[in-house]
């Protein structure tokens, strides 16, 4: 189920301003504590370009020493990664980050998987363009999906066929 509220978590509030100052958008930050070990996973995007390994390394070098200080004797494992091509969306906040990208959502009001390009997102609804409803095999120019009716969502990368019969 998609959550709401990642922006209010302590880790997000601490690291988002630091990364933002570096030109990095914090997509997700998750902490898993197992005994004396802590695994932190950070998902990032670059604001002005495609995110690459250099961005991940830069974030790692900034965040690791800071987290290590706060954890004391615990063992820290830090993973910094990109959203990937087919990221499962965990928080409604992510829809605003992926504006202009294709997403696949399970709309319980249909019920069907709906694929479309994110045009806009607010606190109540997601507006999609070039919409394809998978069960009905139909195409719609624009569709508004209420956030409350979205059960699952993920980025939907599609290889575009540019050959046009050539």
TrEMBL record:
Keywords: Cytoplasm, Ribosome biogenesis. GO terms for cellular component: cytosol. InterPro entries: Ribosome_maturation_RimP, RimP_N, RimP_N_sf. It comes from the Bacteria. Coiled coil: none annotated. GO terms for biological process: ribosomal small subunit assembly; translation. It is found in: Cytoplasm. Residues 16-85 form the Ribosome maturation factor RimP N-terminal domain. Pfam families: RimP_N. Belongs to the RimP family. Required for maturation of 30S ribosomal subunits. This is Ribosome maturation factor RimP. The gene is rimP.
């Amino acid at each position: 189920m998609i959550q709401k509220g990642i922006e209010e978590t302590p880790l997000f509030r601490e690291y988002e301003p630091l990364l933002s100052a570096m030109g990095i958008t914090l997509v997700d930050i998750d902490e898993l504590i197992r005994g004396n070990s802590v695994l932190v996973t950070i998902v990032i995007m670059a604001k002005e370009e495609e995110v690459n390994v250099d961005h991940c390394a830069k974030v790692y070098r900034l965040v690791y020493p800071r987290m290590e200080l706060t954890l004391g004797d615990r063992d820290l494992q830090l993973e910094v990664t990109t959203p990937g091509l087919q990221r499962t969306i965990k928080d409604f906040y992510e829809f605003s980050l992926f504006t202009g990208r294709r997403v696949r959502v399970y709309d319980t009001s249909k019920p069907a998987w709906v694929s479309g390009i994110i045009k806009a997102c607010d606190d109540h609804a997601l507006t999609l363009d070039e919409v394809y409803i998978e069960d009905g095999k139909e195409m719609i120019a624009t569709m508004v999906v209420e956030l409350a009716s979205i059960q699952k969502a993920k980025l939907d990368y599609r290889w575009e066929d540019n050959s046009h019969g050539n």
